[in-house]
Every structure is written in structure tokens, then in C-alpha cells.
């Protein structure tokens, strides 16, 4: 099938490459000329494991192309996926890019098209976008809401082997067409749930909001464990063994970040307020998440007797989670900003997110060439992102390199007892 994916970011590029990999002819569109130029040469602008190989292979085999020319892509393609960004501005979702793309699609359409909303948009927005397109064209078209559930870091696997595919449709004909596109990815029996457009949109928000709720819930339990003398790591495991609960998203830490959870939680809260159905649990989820970063920072300040000025603090991990270079809403940003404000020298290292971090901090932060270079002469190490490479370091070497052997483990990666035995002053989250 001829497909266009409009918006070639984390979602669009992964979706486009995976659809090409399953034999479709895919053209990825983006308004960012530099991005399109790089992608046309097979250079992937984001870090996502397995993505460069997928892009290069499908580019070489002629099934994947890149352009800034939306009108040409619309002309050539039967199914059009909208995957542009929907950032948050003052608690509300900014739909400028989605609306712009919709008008352009409407103006470029010369025959029937299926237009699939893959960007996360608030309930009711896909219908509004349908009206934007309708205002520009007399041609027939169907709209489908097809929210994306992939996780950065495992995006390709998630896309190729989804737990479920949700299709919100107004017309069964469109559902069948899009279902066909997903058929290669659901052969092992993952369900394709076909529903109405608003229910599909709500399912996306409810899923992310629920996962965020689990994280904030565990963060509060962890904080309570600290004052109760309980170990949250055992509590977490004990809870997760209950089949009604399950083990995922029960890891306490410095809070969730990224381009989705914080934004989707805020957007759902805003929807609730607008409709006079306040989402009290989610309001607390957002508050707890913000507090978790502050609490971590306060612990560092307390350790240094209330004064972090002149201290040298090493930070391992900057991306909002491992296996991505995405720094949107990353907890590391707030924590580092807090330390800089207090007069601390911050030296940071991340296996993939250094370039993104430089855009945020410039020369205010020192960037180390390796994890050990990062800790050299440090008064403390903060582990913020649990990259695999940080899980089992050479602790003796670390201790020798550091001025003070103090570790603030924001992800509960290390064993408190071992750390103590090795001579570290260790702080975890919710652990004895
Ligand atoms: P992104 O910022 O990485 O990519 C968006 C792309 O759209 C950018 O390359 C940008 O240049 C392009 N763009 C903006 N305006 C455009 C226009 N007028 N014409 C053409 N291209 C334009 O965003 P993302 O992370 O891929 O997210 C896209 C959507 O998917 C969002 O709604 C997001 O909430 C949702 N989503 C993201 C994830 C994720 O893990 N990143 C997961 C599920 C859903």
C-alpha cells in the first residue's frame, strides 16, 4: 500500500520504517529540511536501538523515502498518517501543527484518502481535524484515530509486536484498510480493537495516565517506607507478585518524564476541568511527580549540611529514560538546575543524550567523556537514568576517583548493603 507519514519524529519515523519493512511504499514527510536531508542519506536524527538499520535497509530497497513536499506525498499515497508533535503549552495541548497539516492535506487531496491520527490528541480533536480537512476539500475521505503506544528505547519491538492496536473509526471500510496494514504485526494474536473515534482517543490518555499513576503511587509508598523503616524494593516485589497487580511500573525513583506522561496527564486534567469532571487522582499524580524531584534535591542539600555551593557533583544519566536520547521533561533537568542554582559544579555523562543536554545547559554544565571521567574529583554521584552500563560499575575505581564516596541512587539500581560495605555513603529511594 502507498502510505505517507507526516511528522518524522520518534513516532513517525518508527511507524514509517516499520510499515516499509512489512512491504509498503512509505514516504515520510517533515517540515524540518535538515532532518529530511539527513534521513535521505540514511542518517537517523534520534537514538533508538535498531532504527538506523531499519531506515537504511528500507531506503536502499526503495520502499522508504523522505520529503518536505506534503502535497506530493498526499498525491502519491492512499493512507496518510498524521504523526506531528502535540506539545503542551500552559497545560493545554498545542494543536497548531496538526491543524496545519490537516488543512494542507485537504488542499492537496484530489481523490479518496484515509487519514489516520497517530499523534496523541485530546478527546474530540480527531473529529475537529476532520472538519478542518472538510473545509478545504469536496473529495471523500475517512478519518481514523490510531493512538500509538510504543515506548522510546524499545519502539521498534513495540511497533512490530504491539500488545494491541486501537482503531477508532466512523466507517468500517477505513477500519478494514488500516487493520490490513497492521496484519503483519498482530499475527501472534494481539487484538485489534475497533471502536469509535472518541473512545480510541480516550483509551490512549487513560492508559498513559494509569501508568503514571502507578509510578506516583509507588513514589509516595517509597517515601512512606523511608519514615517507616520498610524497604520499598521488597514491597514492590511483593506487590508485583500479585497477579492482579503485576510487576511493571512499580519502580520508585525521581519521577517520570519524557514527552508523553507529563503532557498526557496534564492534558487529561485539563479535559476534566473543561468538562467539569475533575480528575482528582491525576492532579495528585502530577503533584507527587513534581515533588519527587524536589525531594531528591533536598536530600542532596541536606547531606551537604544545607550548602551545595562549591561542591562538585557528578550526574550519570540525562535522558528521561535509558535507551533514548530524548531529554524532554527529563528529571535530570530540574535536578541539575536546582544544583546549579545552589552554586554547585555539575559534571554530567550520558551514553546517548549529551548532544541534547548541551542544547539545554550549554557551558553551564561540564560534560565528561566517560562515566569514570565524570566522577573524578566529585563530592557525590547522582544516578538519574538507569542505563545498563551504570548498573555494575567498578566501584573500587569509582571510590578512588571520587573526592567523597557518596551516591544518590535515583533509580534504586545499587544494593544499599553492598554499597555500605564497600565504603560508600548511599542514598536510595524508600530503602533502609
Ligand atoms: P517529535 O517531536 O519527535 O516529532 C514530531 C515531528 O513533526 C518533528 O520532526 C517535526 O519537525 C514535525 N512537524 C511539526 N510540524 C510539522 C508540519 N507542519 N509538517 C510536517 N512535519 C511537522 O514527536 P513524537 O515524539 O514523535 O510525537 C508525535 C506524536 O505522537 C505526539 O502527539 C506524541 O504525544 C505522540 N506519541 C509519542 C510517543 C513517543 O514515545 N515519543 C509515543 C506515543 C505517542
What attributes characterize this protein structure?
432 residues, Rossmann fold, 2 domains, six-stranded parallel sheet, 17 helices, 45% helix, binds nicotinamide-adenine-dinucleotide
General description of the model:
- The chain is α/β, with parallel strands linked by helices.
- It folds into two domains: 2-195, Rossmann fold; 233-427, 3-Layer(aba) Sandwich (Rossmann fold), CATH 3.40.50.720.
- It has 17 helices and 16 strands.
- The protein has helices spanning 10-21, 33-40, 51-60, 70-76, 96-108, 125-134, 155-160, 172-182, 197-228, 232-240, 261-274, 280-303, 331-341, 354-361, 371-375, 395-401, 416-421; strands spanning 2-6, 25-29, 64-67, 79-82, 88-89, 92-93, 113-117, 141-145, 165-169, 192-195, 312-316, 345-349, 366-367, 380-383, 406-409, 425-427.
- The strands form three sheets. The protein has an eight-stranded mixed sheet with strand order 3-2-1-4-7-8-9-10, with helices on both faces. A six-stranded parallel sheet has the order 13-12-11-14-15-16. The protein has a two-stranded antiparallel ribbon with strand order 5-6.
- Helix 9 (197-228) crosses helix 11 (261-274).
- The protein is globular and about 70 Å long.
- The chain starts with a strand and ends in a 5-residue tail after the last strand.
- Residues 6-12, 29-32, 35, 83-86, 97, 100-101, 119-120, 148, 150, 152, 259-260 line the site of nicotinamide-adenine-dinucleotide.
Amino acid at each position: 500500500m502507498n502510505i505517507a507519514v507526516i511528522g518524522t519524529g520518534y513516532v513517525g519515523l518508527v511507524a514509517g520504517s516499520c510499515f516499509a519493512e512489512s512491504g509498503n511504499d512509505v514516504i515520510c514527510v517533515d517540515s524540518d529540511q535538515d532532518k529530511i536531508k539527513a534521513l535521505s542519506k540514511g542518517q537517523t536524527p534520534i537514538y533508538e536501538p535498531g532504527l538506523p538499520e531499519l531506515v537504511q535497509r528500507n531506503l536502499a530497497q526503495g520502499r522508504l523515502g523522505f520529503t518536505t513536499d506534503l502535497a506530493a506525498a498526499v498525491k502519491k499515497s492512499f493512507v496518510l498518517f498524521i504523526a506531528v508533535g502535540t506539545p503542551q503549552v500552559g497545560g493545554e495541548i498545542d494543536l497548531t501543527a496538526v491543524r496545519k497539516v490537516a488543512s494542507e492535506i485537504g488542499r492537496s487531496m484530489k481523490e479518496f484518502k484515509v487519514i489516520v491520527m497517530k499523534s496523541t490528541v485530546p478527546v474530540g480533536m480527531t473529529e475537529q481535524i476532520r472538519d478542518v480537512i472538510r473545509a478545504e476539500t469536496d473529495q471523500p475521505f475517512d478519518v481514523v484515530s490510531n493512538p500509538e503506544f510504543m515506548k522510546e528505547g524499545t519502539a521498534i519491538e513495540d511497533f512490530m509486536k504491539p500488545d494491541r492496536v486501537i482503531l477508532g473509526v466512523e466507517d468500517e471500510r477505513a477500519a478494514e484498510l488500516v487493520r490490513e496494514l497492521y496484519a503483519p504485526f498482530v499475527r501472534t494474536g494481539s487484538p485489534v480493537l475497533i471502536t469509535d473515534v472518541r473512545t480510541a482517543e480516550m483509551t490512549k490518555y487513560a492508559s498513559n495516565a494509569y501508568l503514571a499513576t502507578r509510578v506516583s503511587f509507588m513514589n509516595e509508598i517509597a517515601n512512606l517506607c523511608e519514615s517507616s523503616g520498610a524497604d520499598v524494593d521488597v514491597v514492590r516485589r511483593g506487590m508485583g507478585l500479585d497477579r492482579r497487580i503485576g510487576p511493571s511500573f512499580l519502580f520508585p525513583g525521581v519521577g517520570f518524564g519524557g514527552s508523553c506522561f507529563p503532557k498526557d496527564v496534564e492534558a487529561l486534567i485539563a479535559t476534566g476541568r473543561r468538562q467539569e469532571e475533575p480528575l482528582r487522582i491525576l492532579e495528585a499524580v502530577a503533584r507527587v511527580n513534581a515533588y519527587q524531584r524536589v525531594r531528591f534535591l533536598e536530600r542532596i542539600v541536606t547531606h551537604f549540611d544545607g550548602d551545595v555551593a562549591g561542591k562538585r557533583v557528578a550526574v550519570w544519566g540525562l535522558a528521561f529514560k535509558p535507551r533514548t536520547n530524548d531529554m524532554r521533561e527529563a528529571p535530570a533537568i530540574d535536578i541539575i538546575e536546582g544544583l546549579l542554582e545552589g552554586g554547585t559544579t555539575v559534571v554530567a555523562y550520558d551514553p546517548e543524550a549529551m548532544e541534547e543536554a548541551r542544547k539545554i545547559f550549554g557551558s553551564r554544565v561540564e560534560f565528561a567523556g566517560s562515566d569514570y571521567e565524570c566522577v573524578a574529583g566529585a563530592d557525590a554521584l547522582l544516578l538519574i537514568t538507569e542505563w545498563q552500563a551504570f548498573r555494575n560499575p567498578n566501584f573500587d575505581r569509582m571510590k578512588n576517583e571520587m573526592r567523597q564516596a557518596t551516591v544518590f541512587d535515583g533509580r534504586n539500581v545499587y544494593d544499599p548493603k553492598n554499597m555500605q560495605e564497600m565504603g560508600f555513603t548511599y542514598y536510595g529511594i524508600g530503602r533502609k
